[in-house]
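Q: You know discrete backbone vocabularies at least as well as I do. I have my own habits and do not want them to colour yours. No explanation is needed for now; the record alone will do.
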Amino acid sequence: MKHNEPFEIVPYIGAGRVRFRMSPQEVEKIYGVADSVTLNHLKQRVEFRSNMKVGYAADLSEGLTHIGFGRQMEGVEFRGLKIFLDDSEVVLDKLIQEDGDPYIYLGFVVLLKIGITMTGFHDDDISQKALTLFPQGSWDKRRAKLKPFR
């Protein structure tokens, strides 16, 4: 996988050729074997490829549940916005406008209406800059813990 491969974000669907609910085998057919595979604290499979991370439900039959991108992934876009190439403040403002109801949780800006969490943009911390996509309902259990952002 190349750092500039195009990944157009489609809220609650996926990005580029990766879609929620895909199996590890389907993702592997597209991008090859993962650089590394681990289990997180919830016993969910997490695969790392270059500067992209994909995670699955503990029950693998449920498939892909999140897609994460590091700041090196220059091809990540949302409706013409180049997530990691455009100015951080501009990216944050435009994504907040798209969502309309942003939250903050443990240092992450959570945009429930467009299925995105991001960090490193609101405090311009390049070392933390990352974006993760999630399917609808993923934050339902934590909703009460979310605080309004701004």
About this structure: The CA atoms of residues 23 and 29 lie 10 Å apart. DSSP finds two helices and 14 strands in the chain. The chain has a mean pLDDT of 93. The first strand starts at residue 7 and ends at 10.
